[in-house]
Amino acid sequence: WSAESLVLSREAPRAHLAGEWHAHLATLKPDAREDEQATLTAAKLFTDYLRACRDERFAMSLLPPGRFLMPGNLAGSPALTFAPLEVPAGGQAPDGSLWAMMVRRFEAYKDVVVRPFFRDHFARLDRQIVLADALSAFNSGPEALHDLEAALAGILDCFNIGRSTILSSLFRPRIDRILFAATKADHLHHSSHDRLEAVLRRAVSGAVARAENTGAAIDVVALAAVRATREAQVARGRDKLPSILGTPAAGESAGGEFFDGNTEVATFPGDLPLDPEPLFNGNAAFRGLATETAGTSDFRFLRFRPPTLDREGSEPPTLPHIRLDRALQFLIGDKLA
After folding, report:
1. If you average pLDDT over every residue of the chain, what do you get?
2. Angle at 114 between CA 113 and CA 118, to 5 degrees
3. What's the CATH code, domain 126-181+190-220+323-336?
4. 244 φ, ψ (degrees, to nearest 5)
């Protein structure tokens, strides 16, 4: 795990974000006596690096261990107080060393977090939906897309995939349906939704090929569980641009303008390319959705308020969505037939 994490952290754009952690890592001697303070500092800097990678400017997806970013009730515990070390492959940690201390805590993390999660959750699943923020990865460039691709492949490797049978459902359930969902579909006009699906389909193409060989059904969909925007046609000269309308949350800003949580804005999010392949090859013509010149407003990353719901008669209001029905139909439709 240390070797894989270090290799990853030395690739662009992670290397720049890992600078402070790498500087501290260079001062650590794995064979030295265990040092609680050095361990705490290493864990903090490593967590700061993971958090920086998750920033929307970089949109990295492969960020294990996941609980470092969502510690919950384990915050500050030894199970989350470790970090990668430069150690020789196949070497043995000397007793009482910093290396041995990190190994103990890494094993504790697996015992306390990983194994119970797989035992109590994954082991019982027979259907799975995987949410992916392909839009943010696309905006951050090919590095983020390749990182998303690796993260999705890693997720599939964790699943027990295959055609479900009566025996497997009784003793060891298999996941026989997997839906990959590109979220934030409400940030695009519907005319680009099929292109968003194509980007995600390209990102999971290798993983999907392996899963389909097991007999599992795979699908890709662009969706929004809560639709926070509406669609409109905005005139610009003689052209009419397919745009979205929404109310940014209070405190959001774009192009030097700050929003109060009550003002609705219209934005043209741009068109995704018909062919997703150039996105993964680093073609500069397809880096990002912005079609405006530098310095103009761009609302792609604004957090929009949920829509105002109007009650009709005595019926409770319902949240608008995009293709949530299609997702449910794929995942459980056969169970309800």
Report:
1. 85
2. 120
3. 3.40.1350
4. -125, 150
